[in-house]
Amino acid sequence: MTEVLKQTYLIKSPPVSEGGSTGVKSWKKRWFILRKDLGKHSLQYFESESSAASGQSPKGTILLQDCTCIHADMKHPKHRNVFAVVIPTRTYYLSAESQMEMEQWTKLLCQILGFAMGQVMTLARSTAADSLSPVIVADQSRSTFTPVARSLTQSASATTVPQPAPRTAMRRARSQTSGDLGAVPLAAGTGAATLRRSGVDASGAAECYVNREVFVHVEKRFAMRSVAFVDALDGVWISGWSHNVPALSGVFKFGDQVLRVAGKPVATAEEANRGLDCFSGSGEIEILVLRTPWAMEVEITRRSRSEPLGVTLKENKIICVKANGAAAQCGMSGEAVGLTSDLVPWIVTEVSGRPVSLQPKTKDETLKLMHAAGMSVMLLLHPEDFVKVLFKQLKSMKNYQQFMP
After folding, report:
1. Angle at CA 198, nearest 5°, toward 145 and 204?
2. Looking at 54-68, 209-223, 292-306, 337-351, which range is the least confident one?
């Protein structure tokens, strides 16, 4: 027996082109019906409500058992209240009539799929006529949607800073003891939805999660001229740290955005370095960072060491995520939304807490690290164009090699 769970008009994007854009084809208003039939859910869309009522065949059907990810509150220059349903062969961008309608759709889909909610954020500033990206919110009064919480949690001691609107995302990870798919959060926002933590090292860094404000505490002698601050994308970023201070690898991550140094906001790398130089207090310097806001963290779980990871790499670049492989079944996508909202390859920047060199010495160096991590491998991934921007700024520094893993 077929059960209709929800039906309404949504505006649907055309298929995404090879370049990652939805192209010149127009978005179409379609009548969507969410159905449950024999325990399986599907999302069908019709030309109109009347065509569905008259028994006409749907224009298309999205099988939700294939869904690996749901995005919400996405930014588009022409359409409002955009969310996305991601399956291995296509991403369906859908525009609802209202913010409330979008929230209802995404919440219902997540409940059906058993997805836990997390937050992954992209700081794209695209000016393209037909592109999709989440946005930076300068107005803190604006409400942003996540089913777990409506805004990122800030420390009580932190001064309010502009927060990006979160793009919610979910992934599936396979149980190590069975072939069943269980819902786990892709990235952490607030409350119960959390990711695996990075370890606390001798420098006294607080444990942290992706896309969350983190107060890092580090001794001045460790930080002085040992951290590569770079200017990019209207912000200050961590692009590396000194080999001679190995403790820093447990404190910072490539792609951290620096917000404050010793309690003072920083707008340039020069200000960040000056904040370290001028710190006259005793003990540790407090640095406020937004933890890897461009990153996606994925855990690939294999049933045995002999099972392939299901990815093809060229040095540290993801070339292909094999369909039905271990990585794909754990929710790993083959491409990232880049700086201009085009689809670009992922770059592996960390393997199970170990930083990966931006210039691997061998083609299989990163892959060997992944296999050596065991049956459960945690990857930190960044869009290729984002990595190139930070790496270009890093190479402009004198003796930049000392700051690379």
Report:
1. 110
2. 209-223
User: How sure is the predictor about 37, in pLDDT bands with cuts at 50, 70 and 90?
Assistant: confident
Predicted model pTM: 0.54
Cβ neighbours, 10 Å, residue 126? 20
Tokens of 211: 């896309």
For every residue of 37-53, DSSP letters joined together read ETTEEEEEEES-HHHHH
At 325-337, the pLDDT tens digits run: 888 888 787 788 8
Position 50, amino acid: S
What single letter denotes the amino acid at residue 315? E
Residue 363 phi/psi, 5° resolution?
-65, -30
* CB < 8 Å & 24+ apart, contacts of 108-112: 108/5, 108/6, 108/34, 109/34, 109/64, 109/67, 109/70, 109/85, 110/70, 110/147, 110/170, 112/5, 112/34, 112/36, 112/41, 112/64
Give pLDDT, residue 233.
92
Burial 285-303 (b: 16+ CB within 10 A, else e): bbbbbbbbbbbbbbbbbbe
What's the pLDDT tens digit per position in 249-289? 778 999 999 999 998 999 999 999 999 988 887 678 889 99
Handedness of CA 42, 7, 337, 14 (dihedral sign): positive
Q: What residues contact residue 282 under an 8 Å CB cut-off, 6+ apart? A: none
- Structural tokens at position 336: 């990232």
Give 83's strand partners: 94
CA 64 to chain centre: 21
| Strand positions, DSSP E, 75-130 | 82-87, 90-95, 118-120
Give CA–CA dist 142/64, Å, rounded. 31
CA dihedral 77, 145, 170, 380 (to 10 degrees): 70
Cα 381 from Cα 369, distance rounded (Å): 14
What letter would DSSP give residue 64?
Answer: G
By the 8 A CB rule, do 44 and 35 touch? yes
